[in-house]
Amino acid sequence: MMKKTHFSTVAICMAVTFALLLFVLSLRWPVVHDLPIMLYEGFLVHDAGLVPYRDFFDINPPGTMLLYSAIHQITAGASFACRILDLSVLVAIGVFTCLALSRHGLKSGILATACFAAAYLSGGAILALQREYLCVLPLAMSIALVFRTNSSDAPRWYSLFLCGILAGVVLTIKPPMILCWVPLMVKAACFTGCDTSIERRRFLLRLLKTAILVFSGMLLPILLVAGWLSYNHALAAFLDMARHYYPLYAEIDGSGMVRSAGVVQLLKRYRVEMIPLLLCPFSIVACLGVSWGSRMTDRRLRTQNAILFALVLCALLYVFIGGKFWPYHKFPLYYCVSLCAGMTLSRGLLHHYSESRWRAAILCVAIATSLPFASLGQEFLIWREGKTHEVKKGHVSLVSSYLQKNATLSDTIMPLDVTSGAIHALYKIRRPLYGRFIYDFHFYHHTSTQYILDLRKELISQFRDDKPSLVLKFESWRPHGAGCSDEFSELDAILREDYVTVLQTKGCSIMRRKTTGTRRVEETRSGFRVGSMRWLGHVFKLRLLRLSYFGTSF
Questions:
Q1: How much is the pTM?
Q2: At residue 448, what are phi and psi to the nearest 5 degrees?
Q3: pLDDT of residue 463
Q4: Around Cβ 230, how many Cβ atoms within 10 Å?
């Protein structure tokens, strides 16, 4: 028989080594994709003094603004500072994971931490410091608070109150993720370790006490955020946006398709994403952990195993509720799956199973096949060749350099983009937003609804009242499908009549408001300016005409 300590060491070494390699290679990641946009919103709130919903239109919950405002202050948008913060959060998640699984042994916690680190870092730079990832930290803290309760007692009042505060914080950032706290509260109210019988009256009192403490803690951050919005006269604007825009946005899937209503369309929408979602990293290892953990004789450990499985179901439901199936929406699921994977090395299995070679082989093979080697290989090749990660095909550097050289402090700049780099360029040079709109995809879906028509009118009125000096027009994704339109005739007419393109490359262009003496300058893919060459061509043609005239006269 092969001892459990042997195969557990092999399994841990594989997962930890893989996670550490990605950990080190990720230090070279740049700030890219969604992160600079969120940091720009933090810049608008903290540095520019703008208030979300009142001064600029956004669909993120208010806690997100405050969170990334703090990250902007801490890191100043520097790539290495963001990497240190990102990896520090990952280490903190690992610490609380080990505390949460302390009854199962240190090996169980280390394996769960390594699995989540490998799954998270394999996503690459574009998924760094996403909101769901940051919300995993309060989830890990809550699990540790509930799971570390003494077996003979219910969680203490301050533990429940703190769990409520953590849930409230997440509610202000990603409201549907509150589902992950439901199994924890059920465990806190209904299970008392090894006790097999509880008086009905005592149970009801405990349930009421748990609910009061948790909801009291949950209300605290919600009231603070609502008070901040109300103090800045932005609460009504937020509620209006949430009431009218969220139902429209919920109909857009991850590919930008607006699905028509109906059960058939709903089933088609989820059927496509179901199989890839179930085959998330380490799902096979998690299945082994849940299966083996269900046979443990220790009731406390079996209860924790059941709660972890319930957490996986709640995290899966969270992804379904979002309906986008974007990779970062799966981070809570990855974390809960990693916790179940840690159950494969629970000390509760040691005393009840004589681990055979086939069981050892199954676990090691399951971990080896779950490791995302493609992501590690790609990062290693970039490092070995001395390359850097490309940021939006160079558009961010091109646009920011042009604006630094040619835009004065009095010039106002309006972006027309989603995630292709316009906002990143503005954040890089710390230029405030002109108008109220960070994204432009709002104007192209559900174009027949009154709310979207009002947003369009508001944008056009900004051009009529005071045209921005510069417009950053980027090619980015747009919603398509039922009720969508690629046309915005009023905006296109204004850009065509009142603006001239001063820089253009594949995928992006900079347009300047027409004034006396404005010269049209275009830039090819290679960056060669052709405006001056056109002027030389006209002069050359004029000379030829003169020569031909004199030639025929003589």
A1: 0.87
A2: -90, -10
A3: 87
A4: 13
